[in-house]
DNA sequence: CACCGATGTCAATGCTGTTGACAACGGCGA
DNA sequence: TCGCCGTTGTCAACAGCATTGACATCGGTG
């Protein structure tokens, strides 16, 4: 019966995985489901990846293999904004994969390149010391991951009670005003747009970087 | 053969789960393993929890059921620091559970109470408007989750190559100086203590809150 | 043509969570 | 003391999972 109908390769398999993850969520990612998506036997995948874990690692690597398009004419603040937003958008593209990624950070080359870019912007652009830049870069990384995960949680849940910000606001508004006076009062303002929140925190970091860069170089503003 | 030796209840089961999660990681959390830890049949658990998911939700709820001890005599900055550190420490206690929690945020009452406390500090303490406080509280939440997850990633991996900051620094130092000039140069300063990083970002937020609270009250604070 | 490595297929293995039938316990009323 | 019965532990079984080894088929090379 071996009709040998389909011919697979790593890319087409990863495409199928990405398709399933996007439409049905990472929970539905089983070898059998991937096989059916490809129209092939599930175990055929093992001819191209050692196991499921390796397959997902490759997918994560592919997610970060294209870097942001940065206009080096812009001020470093704007470049940094574009850079961070690009990383954040990777999480937006496939919310679940962020969580997945967290479990297997086999130092992907794409991530190292992103870190290198960020450090470059902080050192050459903002004029931070290497040490300052190293610290801030980790803080920025956490900022992206934190917001990305928050977004993932909001989008992930098929349960609309959790996924819909409006519903969450209503739920908080109905909380006991005795037990949770502040949360119930703040309900209308909670669960805002994740993108706005991301940008607000980004601005906060940029201001902090500007302040930190001030003291060291006395009179060096623009090159 | 039904010796009926052990007598279970929800608490003792959750204790066992927590014990296994702490010592062997969430990956080893199987009903059979939990059963063996309890010296009982795995399926006995189903007499106390509808399924594994509900069991883990209850565990997560228990993790956040005790709030931080806050000295209301202290300035709000210090109270907020204690508050955030408490939440962060929950993630430190069981790194894996943070990731677990991200997947099933069945609006735990403990988390709502934490949010309420934070909002109270921002409104009554720092003097922010309700709207400002709502925005900042989400940013703070992301801060905690982001750092918690970062910590989880560091601690989680049994693979010492990833878990050991020293090894990561060495790996980055060996990167090609052509391809990753900044990352290789910044290597000695990367992968610092997560606690320090957490506190640094906390300070950054507190400064931002102070600045944001400034405009309303004209002359209050130094200088 | 014959060969042979690469790759798809199939059956089987040992995990997993979960369920339904059964059995033992312990508290209840008589 | 008896019998009842709900609660809860036990056991065998099931479906679904990732993975493996034996086998079949393809496509290119001599």
Class computed from helices, strands and strand pairing of chain A = mainly alpha
| Annotation field: number of helices of chain A | 11
- Quaternary state of this entry equals homodimer
The description of the largest β-sheet of chain A is: none
Rg of chain A, nearest Å: 22 Å
* Overall morphology of chain A: flat
What's the short version?
With 223 residues, chain A is mainly α. Chain A has helices at residues 10-24, 31-38, 52-63, 76-93, 95-103, 109-125, 130-156, 160-163, 165-173, 181-186, 194-213. Chain A starts with 9 loop residues before the first helix and ends in a 10-residue tail after the last helix.
Structural summary, described in words:
The first copy, chain A, is mainly alpha-helical and 223 residues long. The first copy, chain A, has helices at 10-24, 31-38, 52-63, 76-93, 95-103, 109-125, 130-156, 160-163, 165-173, 181-186, 194-213. Chain A contains 11 helices and no strands. In chain A, helix 4 packs across helix 5 (95-103), helix 4 packs antiparallel against helix 6 (109-125) and helix 7 runs antiparallel to helix 11 (194-213). The longest helix of chain A is centred in the middle third of the chain and has 27 residues, at 130-156. The N and C termini of chain A lie far apart (70 Å). Mean pLDDT of chain A is 86; it is low at 217-223. Chain A binds a DNA duplex (30 and 30 nucleotides) through loops.
